[in-house]
Amino acid sequence: MLLALLMIAEQSFSQEGKDKQLMDSNKVVTLVERIKYEVLSDQVGNFPKVAKEALEQFSINGYYRFVGNYREMNKAYDVNKNNPNNLFIGDDSQIPQLMMNISGSVAPNTSFGTDLYIWSPMTGMGQAENVKGLNLGISLYGSYSSSIGDFNIRAGGINWYALSAMTFQANKGYNRYSIFERNPWDPNTKNIEDRYTTFYNSGAINQDERWGQQAFQGLIVEGARMPHGLSGSFMYGKTQLNGGLSPLPNNSVGGKLRKDYGMNFISFNTFNNISFKDSSQKERIGFNVATLEFKNKLGAYTISGELGMGRYFVQDANHPWGEAISLKVSRDILSKFPTEIHLYRISPNVINNSAIFINSSIDVSVLSNASSVQPVLPAVASGLMPIGQLTNNRQGIDLNAQINIGKVKSSIGWSASSELQALSSKITYSHPINSLALAHFWRWDFPSNVGPYNNLSKIYRTVYETLELTDVDVNSNLPSFTKHFNAIEWNAKYQNRIFNKPCYFFYLGQFSSAQSNFSPITVFSEKALLRTYYHQLEGYMKISNTIIWSNYLGFERIIANYQTKTDDVSLRPKNQTGYSVASGFDIKMSKGAGLYIRQRWMDYKDASFSKDAYKGFETTLEIKIFF
Fold first, then answer.
1. Closest CA to 346 of 387, 414, 291
2. Which of 338, 365, 336, 361 is nearest to 351 (CA)?
3. How far is residue 563's CA from residue 561's CA, in Å, rounded to a whole number?
4. For residue 220, what pLDDT is reported?
5. Looking at residue 132, what DSSP letter applies?
6. Across-strand partners of 237?
7. Which residue has the higher pLDDT, 322 or 246?
8. Separation CA 612–CA 101 (nearest Å)
9. How far apart are CA 34 and CA 351, in angstroms?
10. Which of 28, 53, 146, 549 qualifies as a FRET site for 511, CA 20 to 30 Å off?
11. Which of 251, 178, 172 is nearest to 535 (CA)?
12. Can you give the residue ranges of every domain in the chain?
């Protein structure tokens, strides 16, 4: 009906006198178009009303990740003997299959966003397992610019953030690691070989925003470009180890105030936590950390560091403050021999699970819900750590250098450190050769004291082993000496062409020891309480613009002396040997989709502890799609 009226109106206008039509033609057309717009825009059905934009800007992006894993064991631990052949779909490290980032702007200076995670473990637990599906919540982001500075706010959800190394930050290390196994956060690259080209050229690979940052839920307020070169931030909420999903009123608070001058800066940082062990909120534990961080460039030298104090408290008992010191001096020598010297000392009284150093002195737990215990201040004993990974109750020196000769690029590290106090009769170490496959022996959970001899503990995507010392005091069960640690690392990278195809070869060697006396270098004899030797060789060939052929060889030797626990049958200490051979393909399916296949054969045994042995293979298929 409305359409017919419009047609009649148009015809009546066309039948006017030609002189008047010619004179008023512009007015007629304008009037008709206006009638069409006002009438049609108010209708429903075939002519719906045009809705105004609700937001200034709106976007959705994210990724989908499919992971399938098949394992077949010829020789297995007890936990796998009843299920030697296992097919598993999903990521048992609690990583979601689908992530969507939804963001928009409600005004020029105000924006919002949320990370929507969908996680389907399908373990048969029913509704109980879905609690992890959407537990990250909604984040609100806002920004405001003025003459006195730029201000940002983040509230709710899970935000990835960093203050400083000693307060709130994750360890980045020195980029000496194997890149054969893909991490859940690894992106697809524009060119199929970019992952390996980047690692060869810079010693690093592309990472997402989580790299070097910690998860935080709560409120974060930031200010930048403030008068006199000032900037700063304030944060209040929870971390994954200091509150997590617990309904108890556990909280963390921190922040920083930074002054920039030229290319240099100085910053005051602090991070503090209070957690409760029970729902009555009578038993509290926590810590305080405050530091000064700085960076100064003096000619060819760069001096940086962080100096601070920290303490922990249990109930109403405040333990003494301790020092936290980290100093670095670096210089580029002819741009071919960049070198860094790192001195550090961290008191056993400095506790902070959200910093780059690991707690090795205090063990306290807190109830996170009615059925499980969440470690708030977990102790890992005296660990053999890769260079760059710090622990408290230790002081030491690191030397890191980059040497480039022709097509061979070498990253070299040397470390010597000592405990400050004899607080543990245990040493922990990892098994990097088959670390991910070993972690898959225990799905979903992160158990401690498992394995054939109850000395293995699973953490995120890896497993560490605990070695007990026998040369200890009968009453205190502690050694009469402080332990000393040494490490040497060498990461060599080489690029060339074979059959006119680009090829990349990477070698990573790590040689570490722990002993009762100081040594300037790694101890390779029976004087060492424990010595570990790891060799990892990787080769990558670009078959075509869409396919990379990936290969891996790994070998490890771990030997303890007779000052450590021996087997009840063989009466000998640990004597472990592990092998790993792997191959696979990286396949670019489209601009935003990649297919990754990994096949690993593994063989491991302890010549002294007969039950500690496994042999088999594992196949992993991953499809990752970004949108």
1. 291
2. 361
3. 6
4. 94
5. G
6. 218, 252
7. 322
8. 44
9. 72
10. 549
11. 178
12. 2-40
